[in-house]
């Protein structure tokens, strides 16, 4: 028995990988997170495929359904939003499935963090400014490990991408300030990146909560924070070594600067 876990991408049906789409179109049974995955993408399933929504299922129910269909000899795919590796809750499914002898193949997808960066026309790693991106979430009802508090992570002063934090922006602001961030540090919020109703909000640490409230954003938002998101970044002269004509690498010999 084999299960395919497919990353659907952030929303736009065209952003699923070629491999992911092929598997979706071959599957006899498609289970998908209907609260997050585009219906237009799921409509690309093959005619006659059994399509099951999982938003209302608990873990054992969902895994039991997949096992039942695979034991009937059917090809089953499980479609997750974005990339399954990021907050996809796939490990708990895999644990139960592997106990039953199921082989698993994971097909990666485009994460909302990169879709949001694209929407914002941003590069998250800017030479001489920041070379690190932290992917995390604010602490809410679900705690984070002791050494992963946002205040501690933010002390690195790098780019931070916050998943699952749209309702916790007051807490985010406080922790950024406690970490030594200036109140005017740029923040970009992308609501439903790549969906037809995508919204991009540019703000600062100081005004983040007001901006979220004003725009009515309380879910499905990626928060990108740090000076790489400076709206005036294009006016500044940050340059990488990669295309520096004086820099030698394996594919090009540098030339002396005149």
UniProtKB/TrEMBL annotation:
The keyword Phosphoprotein does not apply. InterPro entries: 4pyrrol_Mease, 4pyrrol_Methylase_sf, 4pyrrole_Mease_sub1, 4pyrrole_Mease_sub2, Cbl_synth_CobM/CibF, Siro_Cobalamin_biosynth, Uropor_MeTrfase_CS. CDD domains: Precorrin-4_C11-MT (cd11641). PROSITE patterns: SUMT_1. GO terms for biological process: cobalamin biosynthetic process; methylation. Residues 2-208 form the Tetrapyrrole methylase domain. It comes from the Bacteria. It holds the Pfam family TP_methylase. Pathway: Cofactor biosynthesis; adenosylcobalamin biosynthesis. GO terms for molecular function: precorrin-4 C11-methyltransferase activity. Keywords: Cobalamin biosynthesis, Methyltransferase, S-adenosyl-L-methionine, Transferase. Belongs to the precorrin methyltransferase family. PANTHER family: COBALT-PRECORRIN-4 C(11)-METHYLTRANSFERASE, SIROHEME SYNTHASE-RELATED. This is Precorrin-4 C(11)-methyltransferase.
